[in-house]
């Protein structure tokens, strides 16, 4: 391979060059989101029960996606679907990593079919730490342009996402740039993210619950709402009576709505005022 880049995503609109050219203040942050892992009560496990009556296998797996595992096993092992069954008993907690199809799932099922005997495999906690899907490991470079009154004029930046040794499913986590603006009115945006495969044998990175596939809770506060960026913007803003970015927050009637989706509040200025007060910045 000439490159270790798995996927590149770009999101842009507005005149980002003009936004930064006419900005009264430009602030830059470099951030690193470290790796993390989900830890259910029970680690992964699999029982492949050989069925001599039809030379098939019934797989009892602690998976979050039984149908996905069923289809993948049938494809990988070239076993007719009528001779394969996947059942999900009590999972013991999931939080995202148990929705992937792992090498152990395929290896144990294949061995049971080849040896014509039932087999069991259970992951211990140490194995879970090193081989079950991780999250994050991202390097951010973010710039924000504001005017004298703290209005957001534009945001641009780059994200490098470490995918690990391989992609266990699809490369979903690097798609976060499309999540940037959220409650803010951002006239111009230019974000690029790259998912890269690790050159070494690093654990695979994917989506897990609580970080919503690397999107919502993971990076949504990196933009103008980031406490550190917001504080710096506010202190440098000429209009000290207005918390930085306040005029850039969407009012309730500015929230884009689709079909039957309705936000429960959307009073972002009130939320920000409460946050700044609690942080001693109001």
Give structural notes.
This protein has 282 residues and is α+β, with helices and mostly antiparallel strands. It is built from seven helices and nine strands; from the N terminus they run E-H-E-E-E-H-E-H-E-H-E-E-E-H-H-H. A five-stranded mixed β-sheet has the order 1-9-8-7-2. A four-stranded mixed β-sheet has the order 5-4-3-6, covered by helices on one side. Helix 2 crosses helix 3. It starts with a strand and ends with a helix.
- Low-pLDDT runs: 211-227, 236-245
Q: Spell out the helices and strands N to C.
A: EHEEEHEHEHEEEHHH
Let me know the number of strands. 9
Helix content: 10-25%
CATH architecture term of the largest domain: 2-Layer Sandwich
Main sheet characteristics: 5 strands, mixed
Beta percentage is: 25-35%
Task: Set down the secondary structure blueprint.
Layout: E1 5-13, H1 16-21, E2 25-37, E3 45-51, E4 56-61, H2 66-77, E5 84-87, H3 103-115, E6 119-122, H4 125-131, E7 134-146, E8 152-164, E9 189-197, H5 212-219, H6 227-236, H7 268-278
Parallel strand pairs: 4-5, 8-9
Antiparallel strand pairs: 1-9, 2-7, 3-4, 3-6, 7-8
Give a concise summary.
The protein is α+β, with helices and mostly antiparallel strands and 282 residues long. It folds into 2 domains: 5-34 and 136-278, Aldehyde Oxidoreductase, domain 4, CATH 3.30.365.10; 45-130, Aldehyde Oxidoreductase, domain 4, CATH 3.30.365.10.
């Amino acid at each position: 391979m000439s490159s270790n880049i798995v996927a590149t995503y770009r999101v842009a609109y507005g005149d980002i060059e003009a936004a930064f050219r006419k900005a009264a203040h430009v602030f830059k942050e470099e951030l690193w989101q470290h790796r993390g892992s989900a830890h259910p009560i029970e680690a992964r496990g699999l029982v492949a029960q050989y069925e001599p009556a039809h030379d098939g296998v019934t797989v009892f797996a602690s998976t979050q996606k039984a149908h996905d595992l069923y289809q993948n096993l049938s494809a990988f092992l070239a076993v007719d679907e009528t001779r394969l069954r996947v059942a999900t008993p009590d999972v013991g907690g999931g939080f995202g990593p148990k929705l992937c199809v792992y090498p152990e799932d395929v290896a144990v099922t294949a061995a049971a079919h080849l040896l014509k005997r039932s087999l069991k495999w259970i992951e211990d906690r140490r194995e879970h730490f090193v081989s079950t899907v991780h999250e994050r490991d991202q390097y951010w470079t973010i710039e924000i342009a504001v005017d004298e009154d703290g209005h957001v004029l534009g945001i641009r930046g780059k994200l490098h996402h470490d995918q690990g040794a391989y992609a266990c499913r699809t490369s979903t986590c690097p798609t976060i740039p499309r999540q940037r603006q959220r409650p803010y009115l951002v006239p111009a945006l230019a974000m690029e993210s790259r998912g890269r495969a690790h050159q070494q044998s690093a654990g695979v990175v994917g989506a897990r619950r609580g970080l919503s596939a690397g999107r919502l809770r993971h990076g949504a506060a990196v933009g103008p709402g980031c406490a550190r960026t917001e504080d710096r913007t506010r202190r440098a803003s000429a209009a000290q009576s207005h918390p930085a970015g306040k005029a850039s927050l969407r009012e309730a009637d500015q929230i884009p709505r689709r079909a039957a989706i309705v936000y429960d509040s959307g009073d972002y200025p009130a939320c920000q005022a409460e946050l700044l007060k609690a942080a001693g910045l109001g």
